[in-house]
Amino acid sequence: MPMGIKVSDLTIARGGIKVLEGLSFQLAAGQALVLRGPNGVGKTTLLRTIAGLQPPVSGRIESAVDTLVYAGHADGIKATLTVSENLKFWAQVFGNADISAALEAFELTPLSNRPAGALSAGQKRRLGLARLLVTGRDVWILDEPTVSLDVQAVEMFAAAIREHLRQGGSALIATHINLGLDEARILDVGPYRAKALEIDDFDGAFL
Ligand SMILES: Nc1ncnc2c1ncn2[C@@H]1O[C@H](COP(=O)(O)OP(=O)(O)OP(=O)(O)O)[C@@H](O)[C@H]1O
């Protein structure tokens, strides 16, 4: 069975300031977990930490790094390559060859010969998400994946997630919108917001 993620008593920081503390959760194969919480609470920081892009302050993250794929705010698209060249490139990076399912899932087949730089914002986002399908990775870590997507494209995305879960994959998704994925669990990270310095520590911080 593909491994998911287990997070235990995790504390994370951004710019040297603790943002979330005491966070624990598990994501098993076949499951999706949606992270919620207000702007700036630390969802992106959490995803970056789990993806291995920054170390935690304390706590444990158990996962196999070569099972993860992270899609952050930057789309990573090569503007001068066509849609299919972009996908072929990523497929090769991950040791795969077939891009047709990824093109179909995000209705990119009619756009496959268009330079990616000439796509609309939503089409670019669909290409960025199609990339997940050619990685063959089990655990998708997604930061605001639906930005710029219209209603139909959000449905394509939800369908792609559902198919991924059906195949034993898993997904950890930070999003403010309702994806229509009833099977996803919700984790509100708001209650794990790191406490500000106690007033007693205030002078100490300047000594
Ligand atoms: N490069 C940075 N350097 C220092 N602090 C940062 C940096 N990027 C973000 N922060 C701060 O870290 C905190 C956590 O930010 P983060 O991006 O993880 O929040 P978020 O929950 O993903 O927010 P949003 O819902 O707005 O995407 C915020 O207070 C933010 O201002």
Structural notes for this entry:
InterPro entries: AAA+_ATPase, ABC_transporter-like_ATP-bd, ABC_transporter-like_CS, ABC_transptr_haem_export_CcmA, P-loop_NTPase. This protein is α/β, with parallel strands linked by helices. The protein has a single domain (5-204), classed as 3-Layer(aba) Sandwich (Rossmann fold), CATH 3.40.50.300. It has helices spanning 43-50, 83-93, 100-105, 121-135, 151-166, 199-204, and strands spanning 5-14, 17-27, 32-36, 58-62, 68-71, 139-143, 170-174, 185-188. Strands 5-6-7-3-8 form a five-stranded parallel beta sheet, with helices on both faces. Strands 2-1-4 form a three-stranded antiparallel beta sheet, covered by helices on one side. α2 (83-93) runs parallel beside α4 (121-135) and α4 runs parallel beside α5 (151-166). The mean pLDDT is 92. The chain binds adenosine-5'-triphosphate. Adenosine-5'-triphosphate (ATP) binds next to α1.
Give a short synopsis of this structure.
By secondary structure, the protein is of the alpha/beta class. The chain has six helices and eight strands; from the N terminus they run E-E-E-H-E-E-H-H-H-E-H-E-E-H.
SSE blueprint and pairings:
Elements (H helix, E strand, L loop, with lengths): L4 E10 L2 E11 L4 E5 L6 H8 L7 E5 L5 E4 L11 H11 L6 H6 L15 H15 L3 E5 L7 H16 L3 E5 L10 E4 L10 H6 L3
Parallel strand pairs: 3-7, 3-8, 5-6, 6-7
Antiparallel strand pairs: 1-2, 1-4
Helix pairs in contact: 2-4, 4-5
Bound molecules: adenosine-5'-triphosphate.
Return the string of H and E elements: EEEHEEHHHEHEEH
Query: Strand order, biggest sheet?
Result: 5-6-7-3-8
How many β-strand runs? 8
CATH architecture, by name, is: 3-Layer(aba) Sandwich
How many helical stretches?
A: 6
CATH class: Alpha Beta
Coarse structural class: alpha/beta
> Overall pLDDT, averaged?
92
Rounded radius of gyration (Å): 18 Å
Report the CATH superfamily: P-loop containing nucleotide triphosphate hydrolases
Say which molecules are bound, naming each kind only once.
adenosine-5'-triphosphate
Would you tell me which CATH topology applies?
Rossmann fold
Regions with pLDDT < 50 over 5+ consecutive residues? none
Shape descriptor reads: globular
Helix content: 25-40%
Number of individual domains: 1
